[in-house]
Amino acid sequence: MNTFYPIKFQPILKDKIWGGSRLKNILNKATGSDKCGESWEISAVQGNLSIVKNGYLTGNNLQEIIEVYMGDLVGDKIYSLYGIEFPLLIKFIDANDILSVQVHPDDELAKMRHNAYGKTEMWYVVEAEKDAELISGFNRELDRETYLRHLQSKTLKEILNYEKVRKGDVFFTPAGRVHAVGAGILLAEIQQTSDITYRIYDWDRLDDKGYPREMHTELALDALDFKYYDKYRTDYEAVMNLTTIIADCKYFTTGLLLFDQPVEKDYNFIDSFVIYMCLEGRINIFYGNNMSEEITKGESVLIPASLKNITLVPAGQAKTLEVYVK
To answer: Using CB atoms within 10 A of its CB, is residue 202 exposed (0-12), middle (13-18) or buried (19+)?
Structure first.
């Protein structure tokens, strides 16, 4: 077998009615569009399979390489749980306008209705305009009747929790939590492999053909968590040259690494692939017999599970997210 190496994929770029030009201008994505809303960095969603763009696996899709390399690529435990389905979907999102208010089902509901996985996700704010805000959860304890009354009378805004955001903010969104990314926000999103979204409200917008987008009022009702939580933003304290865990659940663990000197990583304690999303600067990833792969701002890379020891060397100062499954 050839030596494994850090694997890069061709981003899958998606135009959206709420998209903008930050993916192009800030994260160097190759799009001519000023309505580009999403860059799917690593995806195993059917119809949107990521294609390898570097090394001897170039041209193969993610599912094909899992089929061949199995646990060596994703980790034995992950392979036994998910088979050739990669468990995470990794994205950058640029919201030039507010997204629809939505909710995702949990595993149980998604399995029953769609024979699919649910969607728990997290956001890391890469850039945000002054006074940009997003919606996460409700601002009071609710029941179905009160919620429906607000939905029908178009006063949903009154019960949603708005959060002003700035660069570096983290929001964890378990399945069931109502949410929406607001205008002026560029973020990294880590989520379960699922494309199931229940749209609750779309600000009375029309699509490019002049029609309102489909709503999923009934479907959303059973998925919604009506509880009130006193905190929706995740607090953390980043430490230079050390990985700070900013999200930790059974589906994924995400760390933030801000560093200006080489950092050695030993992954013998996990049985998982590792993903790096470079948010700032340039990073050389050394592996094997002094071989290396470079990632720059806006690039993501998959470290196969069998690559247990790597060294990250920044050119100056760099920032990256580090994602794996525990």
So the answer is: buried
| Domain segments of the chain as ranges | 12-223, 243-324
DSSP letter, residue 131:
T
CATH of domain 243-324: 2.60.120.10
Q: Which fold has domain 12-223?
A: Jelly Rolls (2.60.120)
Which residues does the annotation mark as catalytic?
A: 199
Q: What is the pLDDT of residues 244-260, one digit of tens each?
A: 999 999 999 999 999 99
CB 282 within 8 A of CB 297: yes
CB atoms within 10 A of CB 18: 21
Confirm if 317 and 288 have CB atoms less than 8 A apart: no
Chain centre to alpha carbon of residue 202: 21
Tell me the C-alpha distance between 274 and 172, whole Å.
19
User: What's this model's pTM, rounded to 2 decimal places?
Assistant: 0.96
| Cα–Cα distance measured from residue 34 to residue 24, given in angstroms and rounded to the nearest whole number | 8
186 vs 125: CA distance, rounded Å: 6
Q: 1 Cβ partners below 8 Å, 6+ apart?
A: none
pLDDT digits (tens, 9 = 90+) for 77-130: 999 999 999 999 999 999 999 999 999 999 999 999 999 999 999 999 999 999
For residue 154 the two structure tokens come to 């178009």
Q: How far apart (Å, rounded) are the C-alpha atoms in residues 227 and 145? A: 14
